[in-house]
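We modelled the chain as a single entity of 521 amino acids. Its sequence is:
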Amino acid sequence: MRRFAPSLLSTWLLACGSGETRVDVTLHAEAGLASRARVLSLRVHDGDGHLALDEAVPLGPGGESMPLSVRLLPRTATRTDGFSLVARLRGDAGETLATVVARSSYLPGAPATLDLWFEDSCAHVTCGPGETCSDGTCVGGCFESVDDGSRRRAVPVPCLAVSDVYVDAERGRDDPEACVAPESPCASLRYALSSYVSPGTGTTVHLHGEQEHAGPIVLGPRHSGAAGTPTTLTPWAGTGTPVLRAGVAGPTLVTCCEDAGPHDLVVEGLDLPGGPAGAPVVDVAGGHDLTLRDLRVHEVVPPEAPPFVGAIQVRGGVTDVEVADARLVEVERGVVGIWIENASDVTVLNVDFAHPRGDLAVLALDARRVTLHGNRTEGGRGGFLLDGVNHRITQNRFCRERSAGVRLGPSRGVVIEHNSFARTLSGVSVDRRATDVTVRSNIFSRVGNRALELWRYEAPETESHNLFHDVGGFLPSSFEATEGLFDVDPRFVDVESCDLQLREDSPAHGRAHDGGTIGAD
């Protein structure tokens, strides 16, 4: 690693230093740009905007080689606020190959480092004022110096911690002077997230409705809110429903990563059409205390070959996730509505699975404490398939499913109660390896095959207070219901159209194990 020439360094050391307070800035270049660069130019301003350094260093044969480093000190011992720089790589003809813009600050009393990179993905990318390029995208050019000796690659951080940010894809502009007021919105969600959302602030990002906003969007630890004040992506009030459109590859919306995802995050009120074949629309792959609410997920295309894909995937050790008031429609065969794997404390609440061509509504594997409450499935290749421990399946309605409404694999401590099954191929199927399973106060009506398949039948502990009407049979065939109702019409409002609400004169009222209504009320 080489440093700039002493004359260039002395241009910055203008006055008395302040002890150990300094930042060693190192400029790196990825291989593609490094091989083409012939000049590195650098301009540095102090916190008051005064130009302190303006130099150009030859690169390549007969010149210097990357990386190059310069040590920056504050002008006085009492001013340790910050600095800004613009670095450019130029080619043989003097053309600009890539630009890095950085604003950062000193750490009082500490020697710090800042490692900045010219990325090949940012070659010939032109950004707006105060912006830099990262991963091929223009973002706010703010960075944090570090004093831990790690020398890790610096990545942009939010420039401001604000409570509200506004995004209008048609009339907004991605600029450091924009975004924080309705009259001057950002143009892109990615810019708003990178430039204005800080950990723990609880920023609300307002997306203009009736517009398409470009994905994919990756939400990481830096986008975390705080308990009681989550970071929220929501429609701009009074503008309609925003559409978040997938990119050319991968999911539309991602939380990342498994070992350090975001927390205290809410995404609500968005329209999410599917993207490339085989890609989930939402991939929750890291984090905790995450809420997905009032989303419309549709046009999800399966992979060209197995395995299946989940329209919404919750995986990778995430905890405390809620999917609520969503609607999943127009999904194809090979697509699972919500796929939960290796996750805990997941709640799926009041979701409408209208999936006549899709596969399972919910698949939960190696899961812990999944709650499925108040959901509606219609016309798919099956309702819920779960294994794991301590699940609760309550107040759900299953209609016209071409397999079991609920199927349990190897599992323990599962409660299935107050659900309604109508016009399904079968009702509830419990694997022989499942233990401590309770099935009670459910309605099984017009079930073509077996209403209950209890491969490890242990009555009366596992079954009581269920209503059976026009069902094909049971497993075991010797099954005898405990305090249940046999051959009794539950009197749904309109079973032909899958309206499984109960009429006032239903015999299910007041007959449940808890004195309430049998079935989903």
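As a brief sanity check on the tokenised model: The longest helix spans residues 189-196. Confidence is low (pLDDT under 50) at residues 1-18.
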